[in-house]
């Protein structure tokens, strides 16, 4: 079936549908990764977004359910240049088209995704809509796009009931804003028992687990919308328990200490983003997926110091707090399908728990 993508600036891109062919409005973003699309599809941080892949051929190794980062795909739409009709991988459970159909995710292929990406880079992230069929109503599409609003998806993707993973001696309370499973795997592999707590849980709920440390997960959307989580993190910081935050968790901890965040023009999404650790002057290649960052100008040097910066635009990629018991990063050290250059940060977290501070 024919498919049409319309952006809020009025530009249109024609292509074909795959997956579940149903009309959808979303925020249109791009990802520059060449691989890792099964993990991307199941990353809760993409909730509410239509993801454009810049790499031209997607789906060639199918879907392996074991690689999923959550129980299902959360993105609103998947937009690619070419979708492979053959899934060649001995671990493959199903092809990409079937996976999207089974999970009711609209897909679109056959458009110039690199031209679309240039538009998003030059004009910034935009709202958009995909409509299927020969003669979509363009006026109605414009109206739908105008009325579309991105709302906080954290309550949707956060765990509703606490789950426990692993049985190691180190107890970690994980504040779940839309956690990727590999964060949990990285902790369990290092001898941790991890219990997930919902996004709106209280400090008392987590402390009742008697944790040795607290993990703040990734998640979707504008961090400033999570007012209850921010208030609880302020209390957690004052309590002084060792804490490690990733992505949205990094932003929420910064907001809890009075720093500010802002939305990037088109975000950082891909697996090839270089960041520099200022203490070692060493550069690491990282996986990233975020549209908001901490405003460096609002970071109080009496409360925290910038530990990592982006080599692309100089934005804040990490903070270490003055009590030396809290550190956070904007990128994903648990990255799958890669790279895993910064996986050592989980070891640093466990060392901090053992010693009491960094």
Question: What does this molecule look like?
Answer:
The protein contains 10 helices and 19 strands. It is α/β, with parallel strands linked by helices and 358 residues long. The chain has 2 domains: 146 residues, Carbamoyl-phosphate synthase small subunit, N-terminal domain (Glucose Oxidase, domain 1, 3-Layer(bba) Sandwich); 202 residues, 3-Layer(aba) Sandwich (Rossmann fold). Helix content is 23%, strand content 32%.
Order of helices and strands: EEEHEEEEHEHEHHEEHEHEHEHEEEEEH
Q: How many individual domains? A: 2
CATH topology of the largest domain: Rossmann fold
Mean pLDDT: 97
Question: What shape does the CA trace take?
Answer: globular
Oligomer: single chain
Overall CATH architecture of the largest domain: 3-Layer(aba) Sandwich
**Helix- and strand-based class?**
alpha/beta
CATH superfamily of the largest domain: Class I glutamine amidotransferase (GATase) domain
Rg calculated over all Cα atoms: 20 Å
Counted beta strands: 19
For the termini, the CA-CA separation is: 56 Å
| Strand neighbour order, sheet with most strands | 10-12-11-13-14-19-18-17-15-16
Low-confidence stretches: none
Number of helices: 10
Strand content: 25-35%
* CATH class bucket of the largest domain: Alpha Beta
Major β-sheet profile: 10 strands, mixed
Give the helix level as a range of percent.
10-25%
């Amino acid at each position: 079936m024919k498919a049409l993508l319309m952006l809020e600036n009025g530009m249109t891109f024609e292509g074909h549908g795959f997956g579940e062919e149903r009309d959808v409005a979303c925020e249109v973003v791009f990802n520059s990764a060449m691989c890792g699309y099964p993990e991307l599809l199941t990353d809760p941080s993409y909730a509410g977004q239509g993801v454009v892949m810049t790499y031209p051929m997607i789906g060639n190794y199918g879907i392996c359910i074991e690689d999923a980062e959550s129980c299902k795909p959360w993105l609103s739409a998947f937009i690619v240049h070419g979708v492979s009709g053959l899934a060649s991988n001995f671990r493959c459970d199903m092809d990409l088209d079937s996976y999207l159909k089974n999970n009711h995710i609209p897909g679109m292929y056959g458009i110039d995704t690199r031209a679309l990406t240039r538009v998003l880079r030059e004009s910034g992230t935009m709202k958009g809509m995909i409509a299927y069929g020969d003669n979509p109503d363009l006026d109605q599409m414009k109206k739908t796009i105008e009325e579309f609003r991105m709302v906080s998806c954290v309550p949707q993707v956060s765990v509703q009931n606490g789950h426990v993973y692993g049985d190691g001696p180190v107890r970690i309370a994980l504040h779940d804003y839309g956690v990727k499973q590999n964060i949990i795997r990285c902790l369990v592999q290092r001898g941790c028992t991890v219990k997930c707590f919902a996004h709106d849980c209280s400090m008392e709920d987590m402390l009742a687990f008697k944790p040795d440390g607290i993990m703040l997960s990734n998640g979707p959307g504008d961090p400033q919308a999570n007012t209850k989580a921010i208030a609880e993190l302020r209390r957690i910081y004052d309590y002084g328990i060792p804490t490690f935050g990733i992505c949205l968790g990094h932003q929420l901890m910064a907001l809890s200490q009075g720093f500010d965040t802002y939305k990037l023009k088109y975000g950082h999404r891909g697996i090839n983003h270089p960041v520099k650790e200022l203490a070692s002057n060493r550069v690491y290649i990282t996986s990233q997926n975020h549209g908001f960052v901490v405003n460096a100008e609002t970071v109080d040097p009496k409360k925290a110091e910038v530990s990592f910066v982006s080599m692309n635009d100089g934005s804040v990629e990490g903070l270490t707090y003055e009590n030396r018991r809290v550190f956070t990063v904007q990128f994903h050290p648990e990255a799958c399908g890669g790279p895993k250059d910064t996986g050592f940060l989980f070891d640093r977290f466990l060392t901090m728990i053992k010693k009491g501070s960094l």
